Amino acid sequence: MAFVLVLIAMGALVSRMYVLQVVDNDRYSAISDKNRIQLKPEKPTRGLIFDRSGVLIADNKPSYSVTVLKEEMAGDLQQIVAQVGDIIDLSARDLERFNKRLERRRRPYESVMLRSRLTPQEIAKLSVNYHRLPGIRVEADLIRFYPYGETLVHAMGYVGRINERELKRVDEKNYSATNYIGKLGIEKFYESELHGTVGMRKVETNARGRVMRVLENIEPVPGKDLQLTIDLPLQQITEKLLQNEKASVVAIDPRTGGILALVSTPGYDPNLFVTGISNKAYNALRESPDLPLFNRAIRGGYPPGSTIKPITALAAIDSGAVPVDYTVYDPGWYTIADDRYQRKYRDWKRSGHGNVNLNLALAQSCDVWFYDAGHKTGVDNISHYMDMFGLGKVTSLDLPEAIAAVLPTKSWKKRRYKQSWYPGDSLNLSIGQGYLVTTPLQLATTAMLLANRGVWRQPKLLMGFREVGSKGEVLLTQPDTQGSNPKPDNIQLKDPALWDAVIAGMTEVMHGKRGTARKVGGDAPYLIAGKTGTAQVVGIKQGERYDASKLLKKHRDHALFIAFAPVDDPKIAIAVVVENGGKLGGGGSSTAAPLARKILDAYLLGVDPQQQWGGEIL
């Protein structure tokens, strides 16, 4: 009986073996291969970034990290990590991040970073202790490095460690081996091009997932290199000129729309964010009263003051509200005829300018001429022309953090404040005060449009994707898409001759006998068309005089200036904003315009402002 049972059992076993090895052979062979052969992702090398002259401004450099491979640990993981902490410094933040990375580890036999940016001394200490630290290794990785630090941070942005929210937005397969992603600026906007395409290694593993041998290798495709329109020397000079000030400068090439300089001061070192900034360092940046993390150039909202008057003039004359030879008498104030309160809207010159035409109104920045013209033109016409100049919207190609600011209209005020539009609002709008808010980028764009006589060139930072040809020549290709912000239509005036009339007034600002910035532009070897501006930060009561010396610096007026040069062949358009007027509390003519002249000289003449002018800048 026992023998029969043994035979039955042997028969069942042989039958099962036949089914597994013959009948279901193909199925189980496939399952076995799937368990044995795996695809391991290989991260691509991130594309480099160059300035317009080919200077490397965003590089990749080796960085060494201490990592943990859990599967190789013979003892308690936390105990071995503690031993590492006895050899090199491990902060509480390092340990917290390590535990989070360990929880979201993507696959077996994937190492997890414990601490990055090891020094040569720390690498040596760990190496000699490998024998008692199973699972601990030092690994090399390429990380982003910004050789010019804070000089370009507000133009270029930075990369940082990818988080779970960002992983959900990207192709998970393409980022399966990637630890870093663009967080701000150009690094963020062109992330898909800079990142490249992940490679794959087909490997044979054992039952525990350990790699035994490589069967096939698909090389990753490196990211594209970018060449920007930024002029590094001009960027550096501008940053130096704005040192110790809360200020911004945007310079654009009117011929292409390429941004030559985009400076916001103070700045910060983007290298701090690449592998993870400490809480102490981040809090210091975040809590600084100077707001170094804030990109004033594209996110700072400022009343444009008198820099907007060329647009007001075009709106008034081209709409037919006033003729091109319109003249007013300026006694130092203006009143609306049917205003029962007879409120006086003051001119900046309390004694007035006398008889004023368009040319003198621009040269002397006569508020009364613009009050009167603005009242006759009305908010609908003024807002329409300002809209054509790109105010109240984002028109740049590749600055993802840029804001639209505020272009007020009747409907906007009704929605925002539940109030009607009053004639006094139009007067304030005509001189760039009241509800109107602009960014330095928008002001530079208006200067570019004036230089081009209405021809739009979309502001952008990308010159092209950079490749090196077979003969060593640099080849640039353009992106397939034009971004999310379409280029606006060119500005078509009813009378194109008005461009010349307004530009002539702006030229008088710099070179005329009565121009507000004649001391700045009088000796220039080229013609500059400019417009000074001063924007109130706090209100001044009727009858009171503005005295900067009696105000805290944060309450002093902002100094603004826009310009383009040379007038007959524009090569650069610029906007300067100095919060609270610089060290002396000066306005557009005494603070912002001199800064712009130095920047224009640096670009057009190749002059170092420090050597030419000497002394303090502001």
Describe the 3D structure.
The protein is of the alpha+beta class. It is built from 23 helices and 21 strands. The strands form 6 sheets. Strands 2, 3, 4, 5, 10, 17 and 18 form a 7-stranded mixed sheet that branches. Strands 12-11-21-20-19 form a 5-stranded antiparallel sheet, with helices on both faces. Strands 1-8-9 form a 3-stranded antiparallel sheet. A hairpin with a 5-residue loop joins strand 17 (462-468) and strand 18. Helix 10 runs antiparallel to helix 22 (588-605), helix 14 packs across helix 16 and helix 14 (309-318) runs antiparallel to helix 20 (497-511). The radius of gyration is 32 Å and the shape is elongated. 40% of the residues are buried. The model is unreliable at 26-35 (pLDDT under 50).
Please write out the topology:
Blueprint: H1 2-23, H2 25-36, E1 37-42, E2 49-50, E3 56-68, H3 77-87, H4 92-103, E4 112-115, H5 120-127, E5 136-145, H6 153-156, E6 159-161, H7 164-169, E7 180-182, H8 185-189, H9 191-195, E8 199-205, E9 211-218, E10 225-228, H10 232-241, E11 247-252, E12 259-265, H11 271-274, H12 279-287, H13 296-299, H14 309-318, E13 328-330, E14 333-334, E15 345-346, E16 354-356, H15 358-363, H16 367-388, H17 410-417, H18 423-430, H19 440-451, E17 462-468, E18 474-477, H20 497-511, H21 518-521, E19 529-535, E20 558-565, E21 572-578, H22 588-605, H23 609-613
Parallel strand pairs: 2-10
Antiparallel strand pairs: 1-8, 2-3, 3-4, 3-5, 6-7, 8-9, 10-17, 11-12, 11-21, 13-16, 14-15, 17-18, 19-20, 20-21
Helix pairs in contact: 10-22, 14-16, 14-20, 16-18
